[in-house]
Amino acid sequence: MPLQNKKENLSEWYEEVIIKSQLADYSPVKGCIVYLPYGYAIWENIKSEFKKYLEDVQEVYFPIFIPKSILEKEAEHFKGFKPEVAWVTKAGDSELGEPLAVRPTSETIIYSYISKIIHSWRDLPLKIIQWCNVVRMETKATKPFLRAREFLWHEGHTFHKSFEEAEEEAKKRILQYKDFVENFLAIPVIVGRKSETEKFAGAHTTYTIEALMPDGKALQCGTSHNLAGNFSKVFEIKFQDKDEKYKYVFQTSWGFSTRLIGAMIMVHGDDLGLIIPPKIAPIQIVIIPIYYNEDEKNIVFKKCLEIKEKLKKFRVHFDNREEYTPGYKFNDWELRGVPIRIEIGKKEVEEKIVTVFRRDLRKREIVKEEELEKRIEKLIEEIHNELFNRAKKFLESKIKIAKNFEEFKKFIEEGNFVIADHCGKIECEEKIKEETKATCRVIEFNNEEPLTGKCIYCNGKPKYKAYFAKSY
Ligand SMILES: [Zn+2]
């Protein structure tokens, strides 16, 4: 059965492609999905590739429960998360002495502990990360991967001697996210900082990478926060400096989540199904045998296994199911977004060639067996670049500069990423949201000089220019 038309019914297409390609499935719990092997493998690949950026960070694990008294210690932070916190209040039939929050994020539980282990300037910088799940009881409509009540993520937490060091760290991480998302997921992003309204509850500054989905809605793909001393003062995280004085540490926290899988599905997929970027694809190459009788089958299977062995440095799957035709298998693997398909029949065996099909352009080419490994290596780069460039071209075509509020409203309504001057005032931003549903997504690095002399909405003095869009 063909899928929904992606362009016309993005939302339905999105949910359908997730189920049909067996990435995930619905669970009996609203807003929580089951990660099936194929979808979970993508997350595992994302993890293992991103861990290569984290040589200076140590992995830890903290409890999933946060006592109420600890969670509410930093008032701004608590206020920001309060509406979405899930609470455990009972054990069996007996009330707990103190309610326990199921972690919505771990700043508070981690920092209440860290205050006990940082003593001296020699203990700094301290950099830790945990890969875990978090729970936020969304009240808005949920969507697999994009907006869920439970999701998987990592959260990095670092502790520094100075504000400048923390600032440098926060920026370093957001730039790593940009690099990773562009170079592994083939999704172009705009990197910069959040406005006062949109920053993380309790942060001094929040940095973000924002991508644009096909329906013109922005998606926050990762954030990094310079927390300055906001949490260390509350949690008494102090160190004795070289001058023997006790000082508060400066901190950062940063994270990205399984949302990235949602972004990847939306940005690259087409009417035939997923297109998984080759560098994180669970199966990079699928080998499909084509034969018409038992004798051919034996020769062709033997060759397929030989080719599989030859390509073992890639993630290769040999589809040896005998109950399905090659045509069925082609459709199946195209739906599941495998970037490269190798077809081997009698002709290929005899001529020592293979037929290689690429999912992104849906094109075939003949490759000599002896050149196959080199060609695949190059093809992975080519497919990645094709996906990235396609998405980049789309993003660029959707960036519009609004000269006045009428134009602003029109561009937002059409589903664009709209650049406009803004005064930076919280009330003004809220009014814009009320009237257009658009929010300030990002103030781009090294590109915030206002274009005109007045704010797009209130005509006040502009502080910066920023990207506005509706968002997920
Ligand atoms: Zn304004």
Question: Which strand order does the major sheet show?
Answer: 3-7-8-14-11-10-9-22-23-21-20
Overall mean pLDDT stands at: 97
Estimated structural class: alpha+beta
How far do the termini sit from each other? Answer: 29 Å
Biggest sheet record: 11 strands, mixed
Number of strands: 23
Describe this entry's structure for a reader:
This protein is α+β, with helices and mostly antiparallel strands. It is built from 14 helices and 23 strands. An 11-stranded mixed beta sheet has the order 3-7-8-14-11-10-9-22-23-21-20. The longest helix has 26 residues, at 372-397. It starts with 9 loop residues before the first helix and ends with a strand. It binds zinc ion.
In short:
This protein has 14 helices and 23 strands.
Indicate the topology.
Elements: H1 10-20, E1 24-26, E2 33-35, H2 37-50, E3 58-59, E4 65-67, H3 68-71, H4 75-81, E5 86-91, E6 94-102, H5 107-114, E7 126-135, E8 150-160, H6 163-184, E9 190-193, E10 205-212, E11 218-228, H7 230-235, E12 238-240, E13 246-248, E14 250-257, H8 259-268, E15 285-289, H9 294-310, E16 316-318, H10 326-335, E17 340-344, H11 346-351, E18 353-358, E19 363-368, H12 372-397, E20 399-401, H13 405-413, E21 417-422, H14 426-436, E22 439-444, E23 464-469
Parallel strand pairs: 3-7, 15-16, 15-17, 20-21
Antiparallel strand pairs: 1-2, 4-6, 5-6, 7-8, 8-14, 9-10, 9-22, 10-11, 11-14, 12-13, 17-18, 18-19, 21-23, 22-23
The structure holds zinc ion (ZN).
Zinc ion (ZN) binds at residues 422-423, 425, 428, 455, 457-458, 460.
